[in-house]
């Protein structure tokens, strides 16, 4: 019998698990078990633990899918022995000993970071910056992104945790060519460094919302590679 891989999602900053809602119904209908981690962006260690709980809750093998900072999370949590494939969506993917901030510092700062509000011990995306984050979505969807996203602690990108799953696990990478949150050149360099099967799309930072069909095809490809 063919066993379909489970799919575990990890969201990034200014998002929550619902950012994958254009993908989840289709994957469920196709027979996959799906879990979308709901982490609070309070600490890297805590967020990795949330993703690991999702991995352990679903049957294996598992395709881990990470968007943006979620790429850092799947890089760390993906060392779990039931994870067989990694899918990065416009994502960070630090090397062992490298923080998310270290990886970002190698490339020019992107526009979204010029339009943030640091208050209440958190970094908030603003109305002025939401267009840099997801400007190719309809206005109503941009407002929904702004309203529902979790907000990180200021030092989240400087925190460290062990694990570099892409060193030993097959990887897929979706590069968002029009990204104004994670530099597209960073994305291409990350994909090349990990030897990922790479796809390019003319998208903002949120291809899973603006180009869900492409993202679904990439996840399917990763899942097929794990079919037993």
TrEMBL record:
Signal peptide: none annotated. Residues 7-217 form the AB hydrolase-1 domain. GO terms for molecular function: hydrolase activity. Pfam families: Abhydrolase_6 (PF12697). InterPro entries: AB_hydrolase_1, AB_hydrolase_fold, Sec-Metab_Biosynth_Hydrolase. This is Alpha/beta hydrolase. The keyword Coiled coil does not apply. Keywords: Hydrolase.
